[in-house]
Amino acid sequence: MTAVDPVLVEIVEGTLASVEREVETAIARTARSPMIRDAHDFRAGIHDARMRKLTGRSYSALVQPVVRDFPIAEMNPGDVFFHNDVYLSEGGIGHLPDLCVTVPVFHDGDVVAFVQAFGHHDDIGGAVPGSMPSHARSAFEEGLMVPPIKLWDRGVPNRAALTIMTRNSRMPDSLAGDLDAECSACLMGARRLADLFARYGRPAVEACFDTIISNTTETFRRELLAKIPEGVYVWEDYAEHDGVDPPRLHAQRITLTVHHAADRPLVIDFTGTSPQAKGPINHAGDYADGVFLKKWLAPILRNLADTPERMAELDVNEGVVPLIEMRFPPKGTLLTPVFPAPTNARTFVILRLLGVLAGVLAKATGGRMPADQETIRYTGVYGEDHDGRPYLMREVLGGGSGGRWYADGEDTIHVVPDSRNIPVEFAEARWPFRVERLGLARDSGGPGLHRGGLGYDKHIRMLRDASFMSIADRSILACWGVNGGRAGQPFLVTVDGHEMDGLVDDHPVAAGQTIRIRTTGGGGWGSPYDRDPAAVAADVRDGKVSLESARTDYGVILTAPADAPTADEPATEALRATLRGSDPRPFFDRGPGYPTLSNGHLHAEPDILSGPTHDSDSATSR
Q1: Distance between alpha carbon 601 and the CA centroid of its chain, in Å?
Q2: Which of 28, 286, 369, 447 could cysteine-pair with 328, CB 3.0–4.6 Å?
Q3: pLDDT for residue 2
Q4: pLDDT at 415
Q5: What keywords are assigned to this protein (predicted)?
């Protein structure tokens, strides 16, 4: 084995991160669609010749489906591979609008690495604009499915394939521009990595790859997993609707087994997850031993770091994979759907899984996990602009993150790293509406010792008749609070005062009507009656908490003036003493929406902290 120079490891690791960011910067500067260029809903990743993800700044798709269909020995410089087929992506693609390009990196005639980019594009066909039909019953309604193909052959684009894809899109120019940007950026990244191999040689660089990955494995094992007591822990959470059936609890359950001496100290068993839905909330996760889900879920473990600063330093690359064993239920569940089950709203499941893992770890660690968050949903409008041209505006709006054991949650964050809302100035110049308000949704964060982060409050007034669309969960159920913290407020959209469902394809909005969007607030952490009254007063002054919430949720009595309220300490202590005795809270607070879907139950059976659980069912039916 080649000896590894620690200085060279730092150089290689820094180069990988730099190339990844350079690829993303190039895509952002040259792409055409607002979803890619402005909202930044795309990711780049770098993998070695063994298909291991080397970079850890973000998640990415997988190289496995490309290598499965195109042997490495048959690849050539200048090749670019493409796919978006959910069921032929080995779990790396969740829905058809996520288009993925992969470029092999060559050194001395051999493939030594891969540069990959995938992102959410405006439209790839299907039943509705945006390719996310909320009432889809089949993948065939969701758009064009493309298994791995060679999109460029030795530097020459496959014009026939590009013509087929753009012909199926309602936004052909935008799609063509995005694909050109992504292919060109990945080819550029491949040249940068080839320079790295040319400078230091293949044996030295690959030895650094091995070290980067093994360092992650040992760091996670030593610093994070060691903080989880051995045992078996069970928890579950729910999506609330699938767009086809009436709202009900679609369970995602994790049984976590921790055994530190085992080669894979964490076993994540999804047995107990609900059957696959008729509608599009399924996620095809049971491929390639669940390697995509391992890397998707592993960032939750970083919350176990000693400090927030240390947490921010920890990357999630292929090094987390050997630490986790995943056990999936048989085919036919939300995580093991059978083709052609629809998947375009699979975010309801994979985002919920982040919270389920956080919840089961909260049980294991006495609450040293953040409360829940739901920081992604798609809303938008489409129609014709003032010149009669069709348009589609779709936005990925974030929400508040959960309160943490050491701090409040963050306001209006996005689960996709570096993604953002669409700038108001750009939106108003491009589309026929006015943004009358974009701010924080007061009282949306769950009350707690550490308050949940706030969601968005956005008001859009239409200037022309249009149709409204929404792909959003947590419109009934709320982001749960933990360790005495309260749930946040759920997602809410009204059109001219009328409340919308979370899943909407084509609700008509007349010119002059206003769409009001309130995104989810994160759950609170710890009892709100333990929050410093001065902090509550500051929240009221800053417009994050109302006077009514300060009194009813935090037990804080504030005195005038309104622009600089102060807490009445004796009155606050007396009120809190009364509230503590009359308002006991469970370890998990699921909010007032949960009983409406659970036959009146206030909590699920796994919420009880009576000890490890193996196969017991929840108090609610599936």
Answers
A1: 28
A2: 286
A3: 58
A4: 76
A5: Hydrolase
Q: Say what the pLDDT of residue 614 is.
A: 40
> Which helix (H) or strand (E) segment is 115 a member of?
strand 110-120
Q: How far apart are CA 87 and CA 284, in angstroms?
A: 7
Residue ranges making up the domain that contains 417: 370-527
- Give SS3 for 513: coil
Four-CA torsion 543, 548, 550, 554, nearest 10 degrees: -140
**H or E stretch at 118:** strand 110-120
* Amino acid found at 177: G
Give me the phi and psi of 199, to 5 degrees please.
-75, -40
Q: Is the peptide bond before 104 cis (omega within 30 degrees of 0)?
A: no
> Is 119 in contact with 36 (CB distance < 8 Å)?
yes
Residue 20, token pair as written in the block: 């990844």
Residue (of 488, 386, 408, 398) closest to 438 by Cα position: 398
pLDDT tens sequence across 223-248: 999 999 999 999 999 999 999 999 99
Looking at 477, 492, 527, the residue that finishes a domain is: 527
Q: Name which of 409, 368, 224, 371 is nearest 305 in CA terms.
A: 224
Of 527, 559, 588, at which residue does a domain stop?
Answer: 527
Q: Which amino acid is at 229?
A: P
pLDDT of residue 3: 73
| Mean residue pLDDT across the chain | 94
Report the share of the chain in percent with pLDDT over 70: 97
Cβ neighbours of residue 172 closer than 8 Å, sequence gap 6 or more: 166
In this prediction, residues 578-600 reach a mean pLDDT of 89
Q: Supply 258's token pair.
A: 């921790």
